Amino acid sequence: MSVIASPFELSMESVTLWIHSLLFFIFIIATLYVVDTLIISNRLTTDYQNIQLKKQPHLPLRFRSDGTFKILQVADMHYGNGIVTRCRDVLESEFNYCSDLNTTHFLRKMIHIEKPDLIVFTGDNIFGSSATDAAESLFEVFAPAIESGIPWAAVLGNHDQESTMTREELMSFISLMDYSVSQTFPMDPMKQQPMTNIDGFGNYNLEVRGAPGSYLSNSSVLNLYFLDSGDRAIVDGVRTYNWIRESQLSWLRGLSKRFQGQWKLTDQSVEIPPLNPALAFFHIPIPEIRQGPIKDIVGTYREYVACSLVNSGVLKTFISMRDVKAFFIGHDHNNDYCGNLEGMWFCYGGGFGYHGYGVAGWPRRARVIQAELGKGKEVWMGMEKIRTWKRLDDGVLTKFDEQVLWDIHSSR
C-alpha cells in the first residue's frame, strides 16, 4: 500500500532543500572571498615598498686614473642547470666533482684577480638544450658579474636561443638585468629611439671616456662595437652558420663616421689622435679567418674554423673604417689564439665553460684586453696602446701569451 505525501509535506521539503542550497552557495562565496583576500590578492597586489628596480652600473664607462681600461672576455660559458649539469671533456679524476658551478667559480676568480672595468660575454652564454629554463640559467650565468657590481655586456651565440626564449627575448631580458649595459637594438642618435630595422638582436656600441681630470674626460676615446652574428642558416640547401648582415655593417660604418667626425669640433690647438680607436665583439668567426693567410699567430690553433659559407665583407668593412684595431670572437672553444689578417688583429677568447666541449687536461681559459692612454706632459691623452693576455683555470690562474695588438706609434 503506497503512501502519498501531502502538499504541505512537499512544500516543507522544497523549502528545506532551497535553504540548504542557499547556505551552501553562501559558504562557497565566503570561502572564495577569504582565499582571495588572504592569499591571492596579497600576491597580485603591488608592494610599492619592495619594488625591485634594475641596479644601474656606474656610467659613463671611463679610463681609470692610471690611464687604463680593462676588459674581461668570457667566451662560451655553455651554462645549463647549475650543479646538476655535468662537465664535458675533463679528466676522469675531475668528472665526479665537476659541474656548471666550476664555471661560476672560475668567473668569480677571474673577476677577483683582474678587477676589470667591463666584463664582456661573447655568446653561447647558456647551452640551450641543457637549460630547462632560460631565464633561470641566465640569472646563474651572470650572477658573479652582477654580484661584483661591474658593468657587463653580452652578445648571443648560436646556442643561446635553444632553450625557452627567442633571441629577441634573450637580449631584452639581458638588457634589464642588474649592472648590464647590453642593448637589444642600437639607438638612433637623431631620433633617440631604437633602430629595429637592423638584422639581429644585440647590435650596439659603448663609449669609453678619457681619464678623470684630462681634457678628454668628457669625450669618447675608445668605442666598443657589439654585433649579433646569428645562429644557423640554410644557404642553397646547405646548413651553415649565420653571418653579420649588410644592414649591421651599414649601421657600423655610419656610427664610425659619426665618431670620427667629433674631432672636427675639438680645439685644433690640442694634440689629439687621428681616429677614435675601436674594438669589436661577436661570437661566430668570419670566413676570412678560415681562408687566411693568418700572420703572427700567438696562442693555440687546434680546431678547424667553424664559420658561415657566406662572406659578407666584415673584414673589408673593418679595414675601410680604419678605427677598429682588433675584434674578439668565441665559438671555436679549442682555439685561443690571436692572428693578423691584412693588418687587422682578431683574437679568440678560448673555451671558458665546463659544460662546453674542450680537451681533457687542457684547462679552461679567459682573455683580458687592456687599453692604455698616452701620457702628455702633465695629463693623460688619447689612446696609445692595446694589450691582451690570457689566464688558465689551473689553480693559480696562470697568465700567459701577453702581447701588444696595437700601438699608435706603429699603427698602419
Structural class given helices, strands, pairing?
alpha/beta
Overall pLDDT confidence: 90
Helix content: 25-40%
The proportion of strand residues reads 15-25%
Major beta sheet, strand line-up? 1-5-6-9-11-13-12-10
Transmembrane segments: 15-35
Pfam family, one: Metallophos
Protein name: Probable inactive purple acid phosphatase 28
InterPro entries: Calcineurin-like_PHP (IPR004843), Metallo-depent_PP-like (IPR029052), PAP14/16/28/29 (IPR011230)
Give a brief outline of the structure.
The protein is of the alpha/beta class. It has helices spanning 7-44, 92-95, 100-114, 134-141, 143-148, 167-175, 246-261, 287-291, 314-321; strands spanning 61-62, 68-74, 118-122, 152-155, 204-209, 220-226, 232-235, 238-241, 278-281, 295-298, 324-329, 338-341, 344-348, 365-375, 380-392, 399-407. The model is unreliable at 264-271 (pLDDT under 50).
What would your notes on this structure say?
The protein is α/β, with parallel strands linked by helices. It has 9 helices and 16 strands. The strands form 3 sheets. An 8-stranded mixed β-sheet has the order 1-5-6-9-11-13-12-10, with helices on one face. A 6-stranded mixed β-sheet has the order 4-3-2-14-15-16. The longest helix has 38 residues, at 7-44. The N and C termini lie far apart (119 Å). Pfam families: Metallophos. The chain crosses the membrane at residues 15-35. Residues 69-334 form the Calcineurin-like phosphoesterase domain.
